[in-house]
Design goal:
single chain; 402 residues; alpha/beta; TIM Barrel; two-stranded antiparallel ribbon; 16 helices; binds flavin mononucleotide
Length: 402
């Protein structure tokens, strides 16, 4: 058996994903599949990276990457939300110089497009987060690192050559979360990102389970027994040296806003909360000491039938009233999506699956390609719409489509 499963299983898998609404494989004008690209430099858009990633990544892991919950309606809604806005083009503005740099908490990045914290990336490519870090370094972009990354924050920071932002899952034992924050601070993290939106785990990720059935490699060979799998995250590098014996889950169903205040007291680093989907919660988060808000629904992996993040963004922007930076993620696939999010009031955006498509397709070069493509599309949209600075982007640059 090959690493990526037998040829028959592979063919069934590709037929399955090809018929899925989560698949946006590039097609020719006559509807026939476009030939696969063979290098990152050839990619015309992130979907061409996705097509190669689906061939390279083992089916069960590809299912883990792409899945939402239940019918994947939130995943689809996030991306579709951007289609309900159009750009307004202004003419005869000098657009010979366009600046897409952003400064967040005194840290300057060459692009408003950050890399989301995204689990253990060696599931998608042997170089995992180190490849993402090197690509982020080359592009001068912000990288957020997951608690459960396959490589420790110290090693990733070294590869990035600058502070990364560290994402923390609450865990049912706050002492563990505090220890993670202290570790991140000692590693020089630029900010702490507390993820609020996974409550208790166990949500039904149907696409993931269906694709796992098409993988002929036994999960136990790498992940151990079901009991071992249940605790595998606690054995990830960032937990090493931390007493996790009282942790039941890395999410925390009993979690309330007091938790945010308690964690706030542990660190002087900027603290962002990730998973905010309403203006009400954004206001509470600021009162509880959050320095920044990430409008996110975990890429549609936490609840189904949720509104899109771009639909939640305006009310969060209104509630925050310019008091804290806002980042939005979920469904961003094109530079025009970035343009729209910033026009609606986001200070920056973050991408999840698109850079992992790049990683799975071509490693570091693929991640850099995903970032380059989206940056280039953003530059093109700004040029065509007569906007030279992100700070000048606003509601006048977009129009809601009925
Ligand atoms: C496979 C996968 C793993 C993820 N792991 C984490 C994680 O460890 N921590 C976290 O805060 N968010 C995690 N997320 C959510 C992302 O940070 C982000 O919110 C989401 O991917 C954005 O949507 P997009 O993939 O449509 O761009 C994960 C998302 C995916 C797809």
């Amino acid at each position: 058996m090959s690493v990526h499963g037998g040829a028959l299983a592979r063919r069934r898998f590709l037929q399955f994903v090809g018929a899925s609404p989560l698949w946006a494989a590039p097609a020719m004008a006559d509807g026939a599949a476009a030939p696969s690209i063979t290098s990152a430099a050839q990619a015309l858009n992130v979907f061409e990276l996705q097509e190669v990633a689906a061939r390279n990544i083992p089916p069960a892991h590809y299912g883990y990457l792409m899945t939402g919950v239940h019918d994947d309606r939130t995943v689809a809604a996030n991306a579709a939300g951007y289609s309900r806005w159009g750009l307004r083009a202004r003419r005869l503005v000098d657009v010979s110089r366009i600046d897409i740099g952003v400064t967040l908490f005194g840290q300057t990045f060459a692009s408003p497009v950050a890399l989301c914290p995204l689990s253990a990336q060696r599931a998608f490519h042997p170089d995992g987060e180190l490849a993402s870090a090197r690509a982020a370094k080359a592009r001068g972009a912000l990288q957020m690192l997951s608690t459960v990354s396959s490589t420790s924050i110290e090693e990733v920071t070294k590869a990035r050559g600058a502070p990364v932002w560290f994402q923390v899952y609450p865990t049912s034992d706050i002492e563990v979360a505090k220890a993670l924050v202290r570790r991140a601070d000692a590693a020089g993290a630029g900010a702490i990102v507390l993820t609020l939106d996974l409550l208790g785990g166990g949500m039904r990720r149907e696409t993931m389970q269906r694709l796992a059935r098409l993988d002929d490699r036994p999960c136990e060979a790498c992940h151990g027994t079901p009991a071992e799998r249940a605790t595998q995250n606690l054995r990830r590098p960032n937990y090493q040296g931390i007493d996790t014996s009282r942790v039941r889950t890395i999410s925390a169903p009993a979690f309330t806003w007091d938790y945010v205040s308690n964690l706030r007291a542990v660190t002087k680093s900027p603290l962002l909360v990730k998973g905010i989907m309403t203006g009400e919660d954004a206001k509470i988060a600021l009162r509880r000491g959050a320095d920044g808000i990430i409008v996110s629904n975990h890429g549609g992996r936490a609840e189904d039938s949720l509104i899109a993040t771009v639909e939640a963004l305006p009310e969060v922007v209104a509630a925050v009233g310019g008091k804290a930076p806002i980042i939005v993620d979920g469904g961003i696939r094109r530079g025009t999506d970035v343009f729209k999010a910033i026009a609606l009031g986001a200070d920056a955006v973050a991408i999840g699956r698109p850079y992992i498509w790049g990683l799975g397709a071509f490693g570091e070069e693929g991640v850099a390609a995903a970032m380059r493509l989206i940056d280039d599309e953003l530059l093109e949209a700004m040029r065509q719409c007569g906007v030279t600075r992100l700070a000048d982007l606003g509601k006048a640059n977009i129009q809601h489509l009925v």
